[in-house]
Specification:
Length: 88
């Protein structure tokens, strides 16, 4: 994710109650979240996320796939860092 304004734009593209994208799939008849990245929070830390797309940029060509976006799902990408294990 970016910093400053970019970070705020990302937050507006996410559901604040679940911290999930508002959508990962966009057709004429449906817009919603179908895709997820699952991870174990006690062993991994999220380092960065691919910027989410906004609905306006997707709707300019009606839906997905489009001339600009070749899939009917938006791409999700995350970089993680392993948390150090506690010594026993």
């Amino acid at each position: 994710m970016g910093v400053g304004l970019g970070m705020e734009q990302q937050r507006r593209r996410m559901d604040p109650s679940t911290n999930e994208p508002l959508f990962t799939h966009c057709t004429r008849d449906f817009i919603g979240t179908l895709d997820y990245i699952f991870y174990t929070a006690d062993s991994l830390t999220v380092e960065s996320l691919l910027e989410l797309l906004d609905e306006d940029s997707l709707r300019k060509d009606t839906a997905l796939p489009s001339p600009e976006w070749s899939s009917d799902h938006i791409a999700l990408l995350a970089e993680f860092r392993c948390k150090p294990r506690p010594r026993r």
